[in-house]
Automatic annotation (TrEMBL):
Residue stretches in coiled coil: none
Name by which UniProt lists this protein: HAD hydrolase, family IA
Matches recorded under PANTHER family: PHOSPHOGLYCOLATE PHOSPHATASE (PTHR43434), PYROPHOSPHATASE PPAX (PTHR43434:SF26)
GO cellular component entries: cytosol
Source species of the chain: Phocaeicola dorei CL02T12C06
GO aspect biological process, one term: DNA repair
Molecular function, one GO term: phosphoglycolate phosphatase activity
Keyword match Metal-binding: no
Pfam families, sorted: HAD_2 (PF13419)
Keyword terms of this UniProt record: Hydrolase
Length: 209
């Protein structure tokens, strides 16, 4: 078996395909709050960071209240979210190999129930670190440091798998190896020396080589 005892996953864009649903909800929310319809392409910056942080960056007053409104609208799109192809098989395979599975996400705890797709596999993960579980969110190291503290894990034993540069920076700041998942991406800003995988099945091949 590979050197990694812990495989830790981001959720959005890595385990579940929810990008379109998320961006549509942001479009609807901002049109209601600001009276302005943003193009979906303008809203890509919200992906991978806490929703309240996105509200703050947009200059919206009472960002916590505004994000609660976003959550109310998002319920209308939750059935559109699916696991990426091959994710269920990957998670089951890793558990059978004795790998400890974890999640580090920018979601709030209440957002873990935002979609039915995640609910299909979340029981396989022994530790879930949400944005409120760490002093500072990604790209800071804190979420992964909290995970390692809870699991009594060393950085060399952990591999973090995510789709965004926030994920990569979080791993680098925590001294943890990182693989970028490209299955949800049309294009990627991954560096040339960065390890990437095109399908979930590629993770098994990569960690065992």
């Amino acid at each position: 078996m590979a050197k990694y005892k812990h495989l830790v996953f981001d959720i959005d864009g890595t385990l579940v395909d929810n990008e379109h649903a998320v961006l549509l909800t942001w479009q609807e929310t901002l049109e209601e709050l600001l009276g302005k319809k943003y193009e979906l392409e303008e809203l890509g910056f919200v992906l991978g960071i806490p929703g309240v942080t996105s509200m703050e960056r947009l200059g919206i007053g009472e960002p916590e209240k505004a994000f609660l409104h976003w959550g109310n609208l998002f319920v209308n799109h939750r059935d559109d979210i699916q696991l990426f192809d091959g994710i269920r098989e990957l998670i089951v395979n890793l558990q059978q190999k004795g790998v400890q599975l974890g999640i580090v996400t920018s979601r709030l705890p209440t957002e873990l129930d935002n979609d039915n797709a995640l609910g299909e596999i979340i029981s396989y993960f022994s530790t879930v670190i949400c944005v409120t579980d760490a002093p500072r969110p990604k790209p800071n190291a804190d979420p992964l440091l909290v995970y390692m503290q809870r699991e009594n894990a060393q950085p060399s034993e952990v591999l973090y798998i995510g789709d965004s540069d926030y994920d990569r920076q979080c791993a680098a700041n925590a001294g943890v190896d990182f693989i970028r998942a490209l299955w949800g991406k049309i294009s990627s800003d991954a560096g040339k020396t960065e390890k990437t995988v095109l399908t979930p099945a590629d993770i098994i091949k990569l960690i065992e080589c």
